[in-house]
Amino acid sequence: MLSFDFAYARGSFHLDARAELAGGVTGICGPSGSGKSTLLLLIAGLLKPQSGQLRMDDEVLVDRARRVFVPAWQRHFGLVFQDGQLFPHLSVRDNLLYGHARLPPERRLLTFDTVLQLLEIGHLLERRPALLSGGERQRVALGRALLYSPRLLLLDEPLSSLDERLKQQILPFLKRVKDETRIPMLYVTHARAEVEFLADRVLLMERGRLGDETARIPANA
Amino acid sequence: MLSFDFAYARGSFHLDARAELAGGVTGICGPSGSGKSTLLLLIAGLLKPQSGQLRMDDEVLVDRARRVFVPAWQRHFGLVFQDGQLFPHLSVRDNLLYGHARLPPERRLLTFDTVLQLLEIGHLLERRPALLSGGERQRVALGRALLYSPRLLLLDEPLSSLDERLKQQILPFLKRVKDETRIPMLYVTHARAEVEFLADRVLLMERGRLGDETARIPANA
Amino acid sequence: AAPATEQPVRVFAAASLTDALNEVASQWKRAGHPQPSLAFGASSALAKQVEAGAPADLYASADLKWMDYLDQRGRIDSATRANLLGNTLVLIAPAGKAFKARMQPGFAIAAAFKGKLCTGEPGVVPVGIYAKQALEHLRWWQPLQGRIVGTDDVRTALAFVERGECGAGIVYATDARISGAVATVAAFPAQTHAPIVYPFALTRDARPEAAAFLRFLRSPQAAAIFRRHGFTVPKD
Amino acid sequence: MSPEETQALWLSAKVALCATAVCLPPAIALAWWLERRRFPGRFLIDALVQLPMVLPPVVPGYLLLLLLGTQGPLGRWLEATFGIVVAFTWKGAVLASAVMAFPLMVQPIRLAFRLIDARLEHAAATLGARPWRVFATITLPLAMPGLIAGCVLCFSRSLGEFGATMAFVGNIPGETRTLPLAIYSLTHVPDGEAGAMRLALLSIALAVAALLVSHWLGARAERRLGFSDHRAAHAEL
Amino acid sequence: MSPEETQALWLSAKVALCATAVCLPPAIALAWWLERRRFPGRFLIDALVQLPMVLPPVVPGYLLLLLLGTQGPLGRWLEATFGIVVAFTWKGAVLASAVMAFPLMVQPIRLAFRLIDARLEHAAATLGARPWRVFATITLPLAMPGLIAGCVLCFSRSLGEFGATMAFVGNIPGETRTLPLAIYSLTHVPDGEAGAMRLALLSIALAVAALLVSHWLGARAERRLGFSDHRAAHAEL
Ligand SMILES: Nc1ncnc2c1ncn2[C@@H]1O[C@H](COP(=O)(O)OP(=O)(O)OP(=O)(O)O)[C@@H](O)[C@H]1O
Ligand SMILES: Nc1ncnc2c1ncn2[C@@H]1O[C@H](COP(=O)(O)OP(=O)(O)OP(=O)(O)O)[C@@H](O)[C@H]1O
Ligand code: MOO
Ligand SMILES: [Mg+2]
Ligand SMILES: [Mg+2]
């Protein structure tokens, strides 16, 4: 599935990560500032590693030695940013549909209504992002990435601002997404419980280094 | 201490809150979109209630009937925004010192070094906010408000993006702040554990209404 | 108090006098006087500035109207007013594209050249006023309707002809002489338009030095310079 | 209003509007290029754009004449290839205005591009939007206030443009005599002041109308962009 | 370079610099006022600011002459009260340039103020910063790219200003004959083209120098404001 081995430096921060991931959900944990978000940006194609490669299945997405760099918009990976990054000039509806609307119908893995319902954002559709609460914003960002039906979903602390009830509702939904659509996910979180519920394995990030798999969790934990 | 009874409406959302709070830490919990952040903004003076009053000790800060509205900068309340709101053009150091530097020394309840050390942000001082990780940003925002030594501290999910280790370090620090400086706090969070550790009481916010106190937790829980 | 050293004379003069007055001024300087300060512009703008109290000792207009304007408002010393110079109106063409023209009514001017005819805005800018009078007098105005391009001063008209943008132009003889890129087709006979005169006068607040300079402008030495630049110098 | 005045009014409106329309696409392209791409010679292009502003308007006007007059190389080519004659026509007046006003349009658009949070563009890329779609759906709408400010400056400058127009296309009633040229003519006549004043008032009325439109567009854009939301979401203080 | 050319060059530099300096404080104040306050008559003020642009430059020039000439009401008052004479002095040239360039400075500053996230200003207020401190430490620094763009436009426009200067203070050597006026004078002498070209090149050199300074300031501001950080923090793509 996804495999990478690359290095990236920014100022005094050095990231050096290598992994080969099978499908399913890979949890990524690690202290604040260890490089988790940076790793997701590198995979998404928003940062360019200084050296190394990135491959998805048989497709080479990055190979600095051979000057290959597939840009973000061609990778068809979905990314849920830590801080949402909703488009301020578009309504919640248009934010949600931004990636979805352009997909050929047969590539859409989720319907608009399912996502609305499970994330409880149906009443916000005509609203602008500036008028949303923190948790609402986070749900819209998650919905936007899900509706894009990506072939890999990168999630950066997607539930951090949500209350328990919503978490308990969205986590099973993500699990369903994982089981039904088989979209592989990289899931960054600080919450042990989320990882334990959702992830097939957990990688530990520490000072820019991705540790070996620390735990293999049975799929139905 | 702090008492308020006011109403505020924005679009279809109506907030109607009444409470009299003693000192110490008051936890505020409630579902996403229930109005917790809005309540903090109203208390901070960044939103104007449509009617009602707000009082701190004997000082009337808002009384719409008598056209009293003390602006935010005169209230000396500290606010940690849900999304940080660090000043992008100032270094971390200047962000931290923004409120602190202007205080007469005798009103400073915490030293710069203490805060740096406990939030583990000493190595970031010369950095710009754009180059910080999510958790680093959150810690700087918290430090900035703490260093302002406010007479009331309003915290909007201040630890949501932090890993367990940091949480376990910062929570006791906040408790020390509470015990030593006696700064009263309003603490919005989704994490039961945080509330249980820190708060003297918990208020429940639901659909814009602040419930009665739901629990009185012994100070040393 | 005794007058200090001689002050430079301040002259506000029509732009078409630029070259000639510059030369007269250097002569004046060579005669041991301070270099006069020469400010050039459109006669209209200068008149309004003098009216508004501009630091000018001497005003030289390209037409009578604006001198009258100041005279009526008491801004000039009427006693010193004199039409020092005259000019001739000429028909020009781009160099190498000169055509023949008989300067009399009945000549088929419309067929004589191709393209537009440029001059100062007819009836408004001084040169355009004279041009319109002349064209009407020669009954060329009607046949040229729609082909006349007005400009805000003679120089723009000249530039249009120089560049070959206009097949013909009407400017002053002095302007035609400045440019190597135009050919003079013919001069308009004097009776086809009002006399082209340049009135000079001291302003009401003129410094004493200015009178001497004005006298110098009327000297044979200055007259020679003016003539060399194509002006006519009428005998008083 | 006399027929000449009406004529000058409509001509001015047409010329200023066309100049704004002509400037907008290249201004957007250039602003984007200067702002988002680092390339050698960037500074030179930047300086070149600014050029018509720093010279007295007759100079660019004269250069246009050399280049685009019926005898100019570009002018001949235009006429031979497309049958378009700009010399001494209102199209030339549009061109003169456009050249003079172009730098005024580029600057605010650049500024807006600079102030947009690039991360939003990146977010769009992660949703499969190719560069041109990112530009059309994210960058351009977010830069709308800059576009409007640029258009306002460009339109106003075009309305007032005098020197370059005069030098390039002259003062031909009904063809190139815009309000400024008509006003200038009147300053040459001793009692022209009243007429000049009337024309100046017409210019002002035209500008005010344009400003009203821009305000309306601006308010719409603000609403669409949620600037007002931000303000609303935090305090009237 | 002839002494006259040097004189015109320095005069132009002085006038454009002073005009920019004179415009900056009121432009900032007005931009803030128009952008951040809703008051009746706001639209009127907005239109008034735009006014000098939409008229041919002679008109504002003449109005200045009427108002500030030695005989004008304001001119007399200025002279009586402060002993300042602007009519037919370089100070008047500064004024003429400032009036013409003022709208160009206001627009980009307004734009920058509009695009600033108001929540940052509110965050500063919750840290005890009173309004003027918020303005000085948050609003103004964040608006720096707008200030720079405004100054560039203002300086360039002042360098090229011809019509209003000519009408207000005339073409007096050494006092008000800036580069554009000197160029005008040269168009009236035989073989003046070469000289005009030299002066035009001097104008351009001056503008390029100003642009270099603005680029340097802009780069500094970008670094300080962390725009480049944003770009760096997400991808060179
Ligand atoms: N220009 C720079 N110089 C030095 N360090 C930098 C620079 N830019 C970013 N960093 C550092 O890179 C590290 C990785 O940041 P990243 O956002 O990937 O962390 P993270 O693991 O997502 O943390 P969090 O859990 O707090 O979101 C941080 O420590 C950050 O301070
Ligand atoms: N203009 C508006 N019209 C209608 N509702 C609005 C408007 N602006 C904000 N709201 C709503 O106000 C509610 C309160 O928002 P607030 O940010 O206070 O919630 P919160 O309790 O902090 O939620 P979270 O835990 O998700 O941060 C939200 O439901 C939001 O959608
Ligand atoms: O006033 Mo003039 O002499 O036509 O330029
Ligand atoms: Mg992160
Ligand atoms: Mg909230």
Automatic annotation (TrEMBL), chains A, B:
ABC transporter domain location: 1-221
Tree of life domain: Bacteria
Molecular functions (GO terms): ABC-type transporter activity; ATP binding; ATP hydrolysis activity; molybdate ion transmembrane transporter activity
Cellular component terms (Gene Ontology): membrane
Keyword Ribonucleoprotein belongs to the record: no
Pfam families: ABC_tran
Keywords from the UniProt entry: ATP-binding, Nucleotide-binding
Keyword 4Fe-4S in annotation: no
PANTHER family, sorted: ABC TRANSPORTER I FAMILY MEMBER 10 (PTHR43514)
Protein name: Molybdenum ABC transporter ATP-binding protein
Taxonomic path: Bacteria, Pseudomonadati, Pseudomonadota, Gammaproteobacteria, Lysobacterales
UniProtKB/TrEMBL annotation, chains D, E:
Protein origin, superkingdom: Bacteria
Compartment(s) where it occurs, according to its Swiss-Prot or TrEMBL record: Cell inner membrane; Cell membrane
Topology within the bilayer: Multi-pass membrane protein
Keyword Membrane among UniProt keywords: yes
A GO-annotated cellular component: plasma membrane
GO MF, any single term: molybdate ion transmembrane transporter activity
CDD domains xref list: TM_PBP2
ABC transmembrane type-1 domain segment(s): 9-212
Keyword annotations: Cell inner membrane, Cell membrane, Membrane, Molybdenum, Transmembrane, Transmembrane helix, Transport
Function: Part of the binding-protein-dependent transport system for molybdenum; probably responsible for the translocation of the substrate across the membrane.
Full protein name: Molybdenum transport system permease
Gene this chain is encoded by: modB
